[in-house]
Prior knowledge:
This protein is of the alpha/beta class. It has helices at residues 8-13, 16-31, 45-54, 61-81, 97-104, 118-131, 174-187, 203-210, 216-232, 291-300, and strands spanning 35-36, 86-90, 110-115, 136-137, 140-141, 160-164, 192-198, 241-248, 253-260, 264-268, 271-275, 280-287, 304-310, 316-322. It has a domain at 8-59 and 203-287. It has ten helices and 14 strands. The strands form three sheets. Strands 2, 3, 4, 5, 6, 7, 13 and 14 form an eight-stranded mixed β-sheet that branches. The longest helix is centred in the first third of the chain and has 21 residues, at 61-81.
Amino acid sequence: MPASALSARRLSSFPADAKSSFAADFVAGLARRPRRIPPKHFYDAEGSRLFDRICELPEYYPTRTELRILADHAPEMAAQIGPHAEIVEFGAGSLVKIRLLLDALDAPRRYLPIDISGEHLNASAVALRADHPDLIVQPIIADYTRPFALPPRLDGTGRRIGFFPGSTIGNFDPDDALAFLTQAGRLLRGGGLLLGFDLVKGPEVLHAAYNDAQGVTAAFNLNLLARANAELGADFDLDAFDHAAFYNAPLRRVEMHLVSRRAQSVRVNGRCYAFDEGETVHTENSHKFTLDGLRAMATQAGFGVGPAWTDPERLFCVHWLTAPTA
């Protein structure tokens, strides 16, 4: 399914540092073998819009399941967090899930949503401010997978708490996931992290979730090439690539790829890249976790293990982790 190219308005609103990072990562990813592009570059304005549609699909269980867990257990989570908290959300997107948590918290002081897509984040922040006039909402446009600074703590603020829902932790390779948690522990020192992650389950459920009948996930995947056409002067023919997603059981991860339907050459930033028929660009991993495996990784990163909440079918989990104090 072809995905539309970015409009000039979307392109101009995207942060310059994010655009340069995309260019560097995209070119480097095409030069390596096997070819691979980091999944964080899905989320330009159009990619963010498509992902919001994915979250509403009947096959895509993670979002509605995590929302149900948050709705059912938000008071228990709020008891762990404590009063007057400062909430830092990594990869905040549309700010939907944080609303359930904010409604349960005792006088939260400040909310710091972090996302790479500035247009999407700022629009969502305006709506949240209107609904929570007593809350300081301070968006941070940044790539949270790289070092970045948080603003100084406010007087009278409680603990600094991280919120990382959506099983985005699963998009990291294991070593990178450990590095992210270690960095988060330093940022959240003395506070905690509320972490959502997808659990290991039957391949048939996973296949349906990443290969929806409406083709929205395919459009989301192909939009990466549309973005390259718009921002990097590439000449990808989107009809010459297929979306492919499958569960790699030994590695406990869903892999997403873009598959070249024929032998072809593509120009990106003035350089030519040859594709064989059937050659792929690996665009995303989505690792699935056991509870014991996630806890072992969190402990290695310096976190303490607290309560965990799951749905009745044990599809998904939200876990409270205590950050190191020193």
